[in-house]
Design goal:
alpha+beta, Jelly Rolls, Arc Repressor Mutant, subunit A, 6-stranded antiparallel β-sheet, 9 helices, 27% strand
């Protein structure tokens, strides 16, 4: 934490457990805390006026949340929701915002976080246009499976994230099962052929192109 927050703020950090479904940031609202995600899983959601939601990202890596709103002094442009019980440390924005925006350590950490997110956006945005659902799904499986090659994805959320229907996603998964790439037991999926999945994945395609 001392690489992120100034030393005199460390003792003021509150450790908060957000339970599944709790909002850490809510779209359209002012952010009253400055949160840093430690552990768990979050979903970043953007809601449209017609009531539809798009999952922009599933976050499991620790990092600062709401840094854009903090720097620009604007309301939240997305909602950050605990997808499972998640630990966050946070400071009350009212008392620490000005202090943090003048601190070189915090600003350097924030700049790094924003650069990483921009890099990810620059990579993923073209991928959504130029790669098939099958390739994107293989990439997701490889990035989120455990050491045994298993994962338990939330299919409705995955369909929203890919911008496709649940039925379309189910057809692609069925095809991958029939091809021997993965197997399914209940809601658990296991990668059977890691080499072929890696060949199919977007990450592999990016590496080959270098």
């Amino acid at each position: 934490m001392d690489q992120i927050f100034p030393g005199d703020c460390l003792s003021q950090l509150d450790l908060v457990l957000y339970q599944t479904g709790d909002y850490i940031c809510r779209q359209g609202s002012e952010q009253d805390v400055i949160p840093y995600f430690l552990k768990g899983r979050l979903k970043i959601v953007h809601s449209l006026e017609n009531g539809s939601d798009t999952i922009l990202e599933i976050q499991e890596k620790p990092g600062l949340l709401g840094e854009i709103e903090l720097l620009l002094d604007r309301v939240c442009i997305t909602s950050v929701i605990a997808d499972q019980d998640s630990l966050v440390v946070q400071l009350p924005a009212q008392h620490f915002k000005k202090r943090l925006l003048l601190d070189p350590t915090f600003l350097r950490s924030t700049a790094k976080t924003l650069a990483e997110k921009l890099h990810q956006i620059n990579y993923l945005a073209p991928a959504n246009f130029h790669y098939s659902v099958k390739e994107r799904l293989a990439t997701h499986f490889l990035e989120h499976c455990d050491e045994n090659g298993t994962l338990k994805p939330k299919m409705n959320q995955l369909a929203l994230r890919f911008g496709i229907s649940y039925r379309h996603l189910s057809r692609v998964i069925k095809q991958m099962i029939e091809e021997g790439l993965v197997q399914r037991e209940g809601r658990i999926y296991t990668i059977l052929d890691a080499k072929r999945m890696n060949d199919l994945s977007i990450k592999h395609a990016e590496t080959v192109g270098r």
